[in-house]
């Protein structure tokens, strides 16, 4: 085993250090967040920081980078209060990755990547039509993280749209059947494969598969 202290890591070249830390946390889900400004101009951003925050109420959070680096998604959410989260699949991985480029505010990532904006049930934020798992959210809270000038954005799920065959009878989602991808670091993407599900763990009882 090789050990690295914080002082060692801090001395590394900037991009080497970023690659190391970004991939250290392991595989993460990736999704495209769709927004629109008050004039209806659309925006699409790729995020790997999305996290479940509670089921009742149904809350999902994500980390938005500092405003200088990534202002458009959070500005649109502040202005309209709504946004969408759309799983990424291999069939449109390259366009999804391209959506992470720093386009000007006046340029829509939908137009640049060829992905299709979709509007469902009069929800004013755009979905990604090509995505098999997507959901609409209403912003509940934006929490500044002063340590690095990022923001925790928390939204409440309004409704969900799924491809047929993904939902199990007990409510579990087989996202591998939908072909949802995950990532590591800032530029590597992976398929997923189901291994097993286990019953709720209790002390003194051996794990049992479902």
Brief descriptors of the model:
210 residues, alpha+beta, Pnp Oxidase, Chain A, seven-stranded antiparallel β-sheet, 6 helices, FMN binding, Split_barrel_FMN-bd, Flavin_Rdtase-like_dom
List the helices and strands and how they pair.
Elements: H1 6-10, H2 14-24, E1 28-29, E2 31-36, E3 42-47, E4 51-55, E5 58-64, H3 72-80, E6 82-87, H4 93-98, H5 109-113, E7 117-118, E8 127-128, E9 133-145, E10 150-162, H6 175-178, E11 182-184, E12 188-190
Antiparallel strand pairs: 1-11, 2-3, 2-6, 4-5, 5-10, 6-9, 7-8, 9-10, 11-12
Task: Describe this structure in a few short sentences.
By secondary structure, the protein is an alpha+beta fold. It is 19% helix and 32% strand.
What would you say this structure looks like, in words?
- This protein has helices at 6-10, 14-24, 72-80, 93-98, 109-113, 175-178; strands at residues 28-29, 31-36, 42-47, 51-55, 58-64, 82-87, 117-118, 127-128, 133-145, 150-162, 182-184, 188-190.
- By secondary structure, the chain is α+β, with helices and mostly antiparallel strands.
- The model has no long low-confidence stretch (mean pLDDT 96).
């Amino acid at each position: 085993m090789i050990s690295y202290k914080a002082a060692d890591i801090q001395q590394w070249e900037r991009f080497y250090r970023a690659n190391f830390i970004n991939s250290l946390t392991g595989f993460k889900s990736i999704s495209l967040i769709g927004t629109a400004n008050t004039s209806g101009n659309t925006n699409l951003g790729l995020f790997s920081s999305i996290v479940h925050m509670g089921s009742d109420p149904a809350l999902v959070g994500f980390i938005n980078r500092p405003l200088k680096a990534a202002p458009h998604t959070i500005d649109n959410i502040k202005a309209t209060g709504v946004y969408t989260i759309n799983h990424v699949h291999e069939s449109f991985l390259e366009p999804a990755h391209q959506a992470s480029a720093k386009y000007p505010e006046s340029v829509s990532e939908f137009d640049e990547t060829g992905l299709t904006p979709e509007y469902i049930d009069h929800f004013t934020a755009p979905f990604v039509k090509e995505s098999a798992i997507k959901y609409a959210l209403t912003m509940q809270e934006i929490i500044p993280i002063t340590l690095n000038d990022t923001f925790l954005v928390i939204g409440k799920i309004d409704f969900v749209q799924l491809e047929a065959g993904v939902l199990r009878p007990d409510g579990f989602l087989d996202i591998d059947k939908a072909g949802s991808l995950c990532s590591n670091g800032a530029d590597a993407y992976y398929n997923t494969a189901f291994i097993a599900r286990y019953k709720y763990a209790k002390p003194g009882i051996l794990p049992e598969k479902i």
